[in-house]
Amino acid sequence: MKRSVNAWAVGADYGFEETFAKVKAAGFEAIELNLDADGAHALTMETTAADLQKIVEISKKFELPVSGISTSIGGNIGSADEAERQAAVDVVKKQLFLAKHLGASAILAVPGAGNTPWGEAHEICIEAYRSLTPVIEDTGILVGMEHVWNGFFLSPRDLAYTVDEIGSDFVGVYFDIANCADRSKSEDWITFLGERIKRVHIKNFNRKSVFEFAFPLLFEEGTIDWVPVMAALRKIGYEGPLTAEFGAPEGDPSENLIKSADAIRRIQCL
To answer: Which contiguous run of DSSP H or E holds residue 143?
Structure first.
């Protein structure tokens, strides 16, 4: 399991070269980039193959491969609104394009419903991804669906059902260790989802009470029990990257990056 980190941890004041340099110096072995709105190291819907070639050269320079392509836009692929749904499909296609050119093996997808009722939205999402399956399989890029707090995937059973109904070996789960830790055990989700898990976000969580919680940095105090989490990942045979995801601080992000990479090293040994 390689140590990876999402570029959001560096901050928008730094360009691609500085971002790769800081991530490499901190001790990470890979980096996850993002399809976003405009930003210093953001990929956008307008990013071209020529733009990506420059990033490939930076990646080679620092010997830091791109582990995946995440995104903060275009999640409503389960919407009954055709325009919303098509915009989400276009985002997935763009992520696949970016991943292919950057040598990344996976993208992160966040399905959503818009204003569509939950059950209907899931069936629309499944049909949308079935229609995308030939494109996905042609690229050979893995698509991992992430459970976020948007009310779409409420349990590991919802995730498993959606993935299984789509029915492609290239569509699975991008599991975020902390996103389910508010009311359940992360290791239980890992065990239930099993080999559907294609990629992992390693993130901390601190549940102080039913109504009070936080997402501390990996090297800070949290309530996730990393021993059973790592045991569950090993049991399902997961060997992909552990990608840290956290926001950038004000000022230089180097200290947070170094401490986070060290925290992953320690967690890997559990």
So the answer is: strand 142-145
